[in-house]
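Thread: Histidine kinase domain-containing protein, structure

OP (GT): Posting the sequence first so everyone is looking at the same thing. Length is 1258 residues per the record. Can we get the structure tokens written out before standup tomorrow? I want them in the notebook alongside the other entries.
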Amino acid sequence: MEQEISDRLSISTNNHRAKKEAERIALLEQQKAEELPGRDRLFKITANAAQALLNHENLDNAIARALQIIGEGIDTDRVSVMEHCEDSTGESLGYAKMLFEWHSIHAISQLHHPNLQQVSYEGIESWYEQLNKGEVVGRVIEEIPEPVRSGQKEIGVKSLYSVPITIDGKYWGLIGFDDCREAKQRSETEISILKTTAACIGSAIQQSRIREEGEQAERQILLEQQRVTQLQEHNQVLEQREREVQRSYRILAATAQASNVLLTGEDFDKAVNKALEIIGISLDTDRVTVIENWHNPSKPSIPHWRVLYEWNSPDTMPQISHPELTQGSYEGIEEWYELQKKGQSIRCRLEEMPEPFRSGQAKIGVKIVHGVPLFIEGKHWGIVGIDDCRAETCRSEAELSILKTAAACIGGAIEQERTRRAQEKAERNILQEREKAAQEKAAQLKEHNQVLEQREREVQRSYRILAATAQASNILLTGEDFDNTVNRALQIIGESIDTDRIAIVENFDNPSDPSHLYWKITYEWDSAYAVSQINHPEVAQESYEGIEEWYELFSKGQTISCQLEEIPEPFRSKMAKIGVKTLSSVPIFIEDKYWGNIGIDDCRKETHRSEAELSILKTAAACIGGAIEQERTRRAQEKAERNILLEREKAAQEKAAQLEESNQILSLRDRWLEATANAANQLLAIAKLDEGINAALKMLGESLDCDRVAVMQHFEDSTGESLGFLCQLYEWYSLGTISQLVHPQLNEISTDGIAEYFVKLQAGEWIGGLIEEFPEPFRSSQIEELGVKSTYAVPIFVDNQYWGVLGIDHCREPKRLTLAEIAVFKTAASCIGSAIYRQQIQQEREQAERTMILEREQAAQEKAAQLEESNQILSLRDRWLEATANAANQLLAIADIDEGINAALKMLGESLDCDRVCVAQWFEDSTGETWGFIRLLYEWDSQYANRQILHPELKEITYSKEQEDMLVSLKEGGFVGGAIDEFPDEFFQTEQMELGVKSTYGVGIFVGDCFWGVLGIDYCRKPKRSTLPEIAVFKTAASCVGSAIYRQQIQQQKEQAELAILDERNRMAREIHDTLAQAFTGISLQLEAARNSLNTQPEAAQERLLRAKILAKEGITEARRSVRALRPEALDSGDLITALHQLIDKMVSGIDIKAEIFIEGEPRSLNPEIEVNLFRIAQEATTNTLRYAQADQICIQLIYETDIVHLQIKDNGIGFNPQLLQNQGFGLIGMRERCDRLKGNLVINSASDRGTEIIVTV
């Protein structure tokens, strides 16, 4: 029973479970049935989107349409395609950039939002990992991390889904779905459909990229096909240029070798001839000459030339020995002379030469001549001539440019040789002049020698007079009897100058004739050959009548010297009476007033006194004047003494009561006079001034019974605010008296309170009295500090100039000095002044002697320094030339251009002792805001310089509009440079100073006659000024670098051409293999099968022959297509006329130039080769007009005749000289080669400012 119940329960349970399962299955089936329409709709949406991607040719439009279909289909608000972009720095995962977007009317655009066009992975790095793995990311807005969440809220997002797009197995980007009205949860089916949509968009993008790459490849192939013909045509030109480059390097090497010969050769003429031989052999020419310009006095209006040096190849007629052609004029070829003065080379065939020059050149077998200008010291000196006599050899501009370097070397050598010869000539100039004078003018040589001897005697006489003046000055200072002393001084001076009479003439006023000034002889010395003037009754004194002009000259301090016949009457007759033949006179000034003269008479012969002698005699006159002034002072003192004696005698007779007092005064004065005399003897006896003055002061102080005697010197106030101050130099003081000399405050006395006393002293007056009579603060300082009770001071004059004071102080008891005592006191001051003046004269004489010796030594040192500097300059130039030649050898020897230039720069820098050598390339500024900039490509630095090429801001240097002069100088072949602080551009100064540059120089580098860049040299340790010869050598180095770069460019062009030709050959080989070869193989198989079945199955054979025919037509079509691929694109779509119109439209579009095309005759189809070549010639001519001619009109004319076609291209531009450019540039050479290939004729008509016309006839 239990078992039955259990079974029933089990059955019931199973039935319930089965029922539940059936209900669940039914529910699932119902759900699936409900989802089926939605899935079908999604699949349909996906299919429509895929169809849109497939049908639209434009990818952007296709994706936009597909996004719209998907967005509207799944009822979302925004669908976008975003591309993943890597972070170039590697610091982050990158960002997603929006490319395409569709949005509903309920949403705003994210694509046009300024901040949300790009979405960074910051904060959502895990999303990036999921997307990179191909997983879908879906979030409601609350689940999105910051900062992405804020950005999505800003554009109204409530939920979003991101589905990865994969291209070539890599994560490319994503397709995003944004719901802005309400958040939505997408089912697995929807997500699967979204993945499919992302895959479709990824495939469309990939296919678009493949298609674009294919189209780009096809366009590239077409471009390469268009270029292959040009490359083939240029290949020969490049090979020709390579030969020219090799020839240029051969010439460059020869130039370096010639430079070395010029530098090392001992015989200059042989060295020049050897250098010409080296250059001539390297050029494979027949004659190389050095021709000098010269001025022909008979034809001053025409410049002339003459041959100085010459080398000739074997069997070539020498020009230098030709009787008619060793020299000539520029008549008929004046234009050549003007071109050479501007630094331009000339090139001319014999038949193109003007007469009469052509006839002369024909006589010596010239077929073509080239001339390279030669400059010395910046002036056009001559030319280096190259004559080809065997064949017409046209030298390229590159060769002529290198020959300019050779010419510069020869010019430098000639300049150096001329300098050397000039030095040698200067050294043997005296000998050569004597020899020449002995042959031509013996009398002139004798006169010249006499002048030299006379000058030597004058110099010796000047020294003798100077010594005599010093001796006379010493006698005047030390002599006791003044008259004898003066006469002795006159004798010394007279004997030293070898004259016959020397006299001291004093001016005086004659009361009987006040209208005239008078003179008289006061002292005189006569030689044994002269009579005495002082004793002559008629000429011992006389007026200035007739010679008033002399008096005015003497008053101005001027001397005179004249022959007897030059003396005005009546003075001349009087001088003749005493035998004067030459008279000289030097003025004497006393107390700055014209007092008289020293007269010098030559009676034996006429003697010319030089300015040097008269100048020295002025010194003698000053000494004598000073002695006379001193003697007059002494005599005045004696006269004063006599007057005192007279007064004393008179007082004795008149006032006996005053006798005792007078006796005391006289006794004191005698003591003072005795003390003054003793002091003067001390000053004269003791050689050293300091010892003499101290001894004199001691004698004065002890004899005069005073307490302090001092000598003070006056010093001016440099500020001008006061009268200066007195500084105590010498002092004697009695026992118990305080020394003023060592007092820290009172050894100097200022004008404070006593300025009027300073004025009186400077005026020659004395000051003094009791100390109570003096003003403050002077009075208190003297009483309190020094104990002075009375003080006196008299001025000291040296050479009539106020020098200081002699002071006396009484400290025990006050004393009042009489005028007589003051007079004696002044005498003592005068003695001291004379001693000081004597010391000054002695010092000045010694200083003059020392100065003269120093000047001689300095002159000798300067001359030695000049010679040393000249030797250093020549040595430096030799070293520069050697360094340049070695650098050129480095550039020739090293194949790698970078390695070669770096090696050359290192050699230049180390040899030239500079701190930086660099090569910088020039780049134009396309915006026009500046001229452009130079960028450093190569650099060598010494250990004292910083690397400029590594500097973040100075590896490129911009040339502003203000630096036009510098740029123009470089582009015209000049140079810029100097000390850095002399540059006008402050910004350039700042840049260079930042690099430590003290001076800098730069020259232009030219590649193929075009300005390429700059070769620079810097000095960082100290500034250096380079000479013009050094700059010329520097330009040679720049030319070597330019040639190396040009050679590299030619090599690269050749390699590129060869590579392009090889690529085109490979392409054509593939094309033939893929088309013609397969077609021919098919034809061969069909013909073989037809042959085998021809007898047994004729119908099958007929069918196979038909297939072979079809294959043959297809092969022909492919062959024609390959041929058309080689034609210009413009000719593919039309004839030559259409192609020319398209050419003009394309090239002058947007340019202010008027272009016209005219067709004459009946147009017809031409041979494809003719059409291609005429089109290319028109294309090249039009390009040259637009690039170089500066024209505003261009006309192309195509003329069809019966058997001939003419193509004419004409412009109204600046024109050019076809002779100078006939072998230059690919354009003109290419035109000639195309005409030669068609067996046509090319004519080029052009001249300066007359436009250009190119006519092609085929």
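GT: Both are above now. Quick notes for whoever picks this up: The CA atoms of residues 1151 and 1186 lie 9 Å apart. The chain has a mean pLDDT of 80.
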